[in-house]
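Make up an example, fold above all:
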Amino acid sequence: MAVPTNRKAILLATFIAFGMFCELLSKVTGFLFGYDIGVISGCLIMDDFVRRFGEVGTDGVPFLSSSRQSIITSLLSAGTFVGALGQAFTSDRFGRRGSILIWSGIFTIGVAIQTATTFSIVQITIGRFIAGLGVGALSAIVPLYNGETSPKRLRGMLLCFYQLQIIIGIFLSYIIELGTNKIPNSASWRIPVGLQMLWGLILLSGIFFLPESPRHLLGLGEEAEARKVIAQLNSVPEDDIVVTETMEELEFAIRAENEGGKTTWLECFSTRNMLWKRTLNGMMLQFIQQLNGQNFYYYYGDTFFKSAGTSLNPFVIQTILGGVSVVGSVLEAICSIIAGLAGHFLLAPPGTNTNLLTKSQRQGGDVLIAFAVLHVFSYSMFWGPTPWVYLGESFPLRVRPKAIALGSATNWLWNFLLSFFAPRIANDIGPLILMIFFGMLVFGYAFVYLCIPETKGLSLEEVDEMYRARVKPWNSASWRPRQKHFHEDSKEPISAEVREADAEKSSR
């Protein structure tokens, strides 16, 4: 088996996760994905940005209405929804590696359109939509690619690198905006927004050094190349037993999965091997993740904290949020309810002069911010990475691209709905919007306990077997495969008769 110090696999996953950083660099693909989320939050309160893309109030002062904030922010998420579904077609036709190249280029074009905008809100929103296409596609392809190239003992950890790079992307965007927000011209927002082109170009150039997924290569009949890639990823010779075992296991799984003909979207919801449950679980986890509340802080934190009446600079507060993210569900829920109630009962009414705030009102703002920091910290440990790990290791090869696309598309659909409606809701009910997130986290706790099985330490094929065995989620942590493709002690392949029987069950 591959050892946990496999440097090539770790470097590979780190680079791929960095690619996601550039748009969650906007919330795209790891670093891509994270960075943009953080960038747009700061831009919304920059004077030059507001002057160019806002409206002029009756007092002659430019401002960004909640409707304009939601349009500018949410168009990226609308693009990610389309891109997440679109990658399912390119990842099979052009391979995982080729698809990353295509969608990285689309993302970079979208960023260029945004950076070149002068006063057109239409242009900047179109640019964000195009960049979102790349982010959404990469958000689905990267977990797929990591899941198919990582040794099983490292797979969960490497998939978590994806979330780590997202968080680092968000944090870096806050640091950059902290340094540029005082610039008295368009450079204040063009610099942090335009830097995303650099991240995209790094991803475009680096993809040429990455191997194709061995599972995809075997699906195309390129056995020699698949063997070579497996050897590289495990840092062993091509004739090593690890390569031989992995090859036979993958070939067996592919034969069983291909017996049913061409894959359709409806097959993701079929009763075969409990695919319907696995697909819905992936979609539900992404739905709950988006309504945890953390993205409300990421997208609108600067605007939200600016109205809290605290003496801290909102850019500084966002930087603190990003910092603790780099460094639980129950803890998140507690933070949501405390922050929401403190904000509702202790904060001054909207529009109150900050110089006239009482001591208790200032303390209310400080309490809200403190628990917002704890909320984001908890998210970064639990709900942030885990749904992506589930998507990467829960589906058989036959339906994996489409199933992951559905999970990712669900993430982006609710990301769009949150970013579009959150400022309007917050404008009506203020900090009580956090009660919505509290309720969702309580629901999420129950859902995970009752519906999500443990996949730690299992190969992708063994996860398939666990679902076929209909193991109860609350008993799954202690479950072990009844029939492994290879005996754990002797490492000898199981008999051909057992394989044929298993394949026949899989095709039903």
The two ends are 31 Å apart (CA to CA). DSSP finds 21 helices and two strands in the chain. The beta strands are 55-56, 62-63.
